[in-house]
Amino acid sequence: VTVVADMRGQAEIVKFWAPWCGSCRLFAPVVSSVVDGSAGEMRLREVNLAEDTEEADARGVGTLPTLVVLKDGKELGRLIGAMSRTALTDQLSELLGGADPSIDTATAKD
Fold first, then answer.
1. Do the bridges between strand 11-17 and strand 42-48 make them parallel or antiparallel, or are there none, so unpaired?
2. pLDDT score at 49
3. Long-range contacts of 84-91 (CB under 8 A, 24+ apart)
4. Active-site residue 24, yes or no?
5. Cα 42 to the chain's mean position, in Å?
6. Mean pLDDT over all residues of the chain?
7. Annotation marks residue 30 as catalytic
């Protein structure tokens, strides 16, 4: 993954999914909602395994959906499987260094 200058400090969430994955389809709006609500602190990049398996193979992704969380080009962690908005928000906040004020957990709904 190449990190461009304007992404410094911004977390990149790489979502590995496939159109035949039911959990991926259910989880997609949850991920989009959390990233969209992050006030620019996160950006989402999607990798569709039906079209591109190279990056998934390189990163050792074997289960869908998987989110790989990157910051400044370094992997901070990965989240495997679908989850509620609250659970996703909590886990991303933990990976990104604690409570992130740009993620509004007070209004997070499952």
1. parallel
2. 96
3. 84/30, 84/110, 85/30, 85/33, 85/34, 85/109, 85/110, 86/110, 88/30, 88/31, 88/34, 89/34
4. yes
5. 9
6. 86
7. no
Separation CA 70–CA 14 (nearest Å): 8
Residue 84 has what DSSP assignment?
Answer: -
Q: Could you report the per-residue pLDDT of 3-60, keeping only the tens digit for each?
A: 343 456 799 999 999 999 999 999 999 999 999 999 999 999 999 999 999 999 999 9
Collect all residues with Cβ–Cβ distance below 8 Å to 42 and sequence separation of at least 6.
Answer: 10, 11, 12, 13, 34, 35, 92
Residues 60-107: tens digit of each pLDDT: 999 999 999 999 989 999 999 999 999 999 999 999 986 444 444 444
Which residue of the set 14, 24, 49, 108 is catalytic? Answer: 24
**At 91, is the secondary structure helix, strand, or coil?**
helix
- Tally Cβ neighbours within 10 Å of residue 39: 11
The single residue of 13, 21, 70, 103 carrying the catalytic annotation is 21
**pLDDT confidence of residue 36:** 95
